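not sure who needs this but someone in the group chat was asking about EF hand from Octadecabacter temperatus so here u go. i didnt clean anything up, its just raw.
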Amino acid sequence: MKTTFLVAAIAAGITLAASAQAREANGPRMQMPAFEELDLNSDGEVTATEIQGAMQAQAAARFAEADTDGDGALSAEEMVARVEGERQERMADRIADRIEKADTNGDGLLQAEELTAQAGERAEGRGNRGAERMFDRFDADDNGSLSAEEFAEAQTRMENRGERGDRGQNGRRGDN
């Protein structure tokens, strides 16, 4: 009985962690099972007990998938491997999507010209506003050019930006 409760608690924890990751880090969202999968007794209705049972089954399956050595426990290495695998899947999906959107010649590869064209399409309508704003912020004496000192200050501020999570005092990007 203790073992069953422990496994259920761990499985629930993994489910909660996975759903939290999905909300916060754009991780894989847990898929809603089909009605037929939830209707365990096939009576044409789904009860809270059936939903809870399906959630426990899904959590147990995720646990078993993460428990790569099959010892019934998750090591830090197994948990990291699970998260890394999910991260790699998300990255592969993003890259595939980017290639699909930019691959104008249909060869499944991105050439420099295709990336340049895609960047141009993104910049359309924005003009040089971003670059001009950045330049204006660093041109302390408003003379239309950067002195060596202003440039050094800009470099320092840009380097320090990463240390604050790329956000200024008011929480906005580029707000220095």
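also DSSP finds seven helices and no strands in the chain. if thats useful
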